[in-house]
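Hi V.,

You were right to ask for the full record rather than a summary. Here it is.
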Amino acid sequence: MKTGKLTSLTALAQELERRAEAKKDMIADTKHVEVYVRGDDDIGLEIAGREDFTVNDYAHRQLGEVTGIPAVYYDKMRKEAPDLLTANINRWFHQAPANRLIRTLDGKVRALLSDRFNTGIENEDMARQILPVLMENDLEVMSAEITDRRMYLKIVDKSLVRELAKIGGEFGDGKHNILRAVSPAITVSNSEVGAGAASVLGGVYDGFCSNLATFGERSVRKYHVGARHSLGEDTYALLSDETKRKTDVATLAQIGDVVKAAFDRARFDALVDKIEGTQKDKIDGDPVKVIQIASKKLGMTEGEGKDILRHLIEGGSLTRFGLYNAITRTSQDVADYDRATELERVGGKIIELPETEWSVIKEAA
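Predicted structure:
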């Protein structure tokens, strides 16, 4: 598990409070928005000749999407010809004007969104719902971070511990038979800038190597309301403000309930049973080819694949379980916190793969 910069609940609460005071939203018609080249050759954004901001990297990506400029070309212009980039953006802003929600923080544009975007669940709302549950149940926040894209809370119940049964391979460095204990964990995340839904992902924390893996089958997302109703994002955007508010309140309450339920012993044991079973799933093919196919299927880069292969070999367990461990271990080497968290989810996906899909990977030659 990659450690975030916010090392305590107090630090997290203070930063969320600061951001709540510093952030600002506005609806602007793009015919009144101009981008320009700043003195440092980066891009500035001005609204109606009054509001002036810099633009963070994530908002740059959204600027490209809104104006239809391909990402590779956008990045090339931003680096090599920022005047050409601003001319392109301004041309499309003014030729096809539209109302946009512009979200800012600390003098920077952090998001450029549809004016229908719902801002009902903010990071501080999630924290107010979850932090009391953590304190009441003596749960430990092992890592917390707020990136340009998302807020993350990675929470472990260390009072619940189970040793992994050793079925095959070696744990640890591939040379020693080391007992490994795991505990239930969750990753709570939320985006205020359109980078996906609020979610709670259930998972497992490995106390021996500090690996974390998360699993989709034990998750809840923002638009799920109650046991029988699921609202898609497009449908949600059409609801009235009052209905949205009630939906957000219901969703926050549901998230609090999911956090409490995620540490249930029976649910935890069922998940660990499934993980233990993958120690019997041998990798029959060429490990290099196995990593290549797994990377293509699960969206890992070539560089990540090389690191995963190294950790797979060092771990000494050429099994699905070994690959799961190698991926979650690689997540700790990744500099970007968002991407490290995505790899923790990829580790869980390896365990969740249907047998037919796993067979294609394990028999790669």
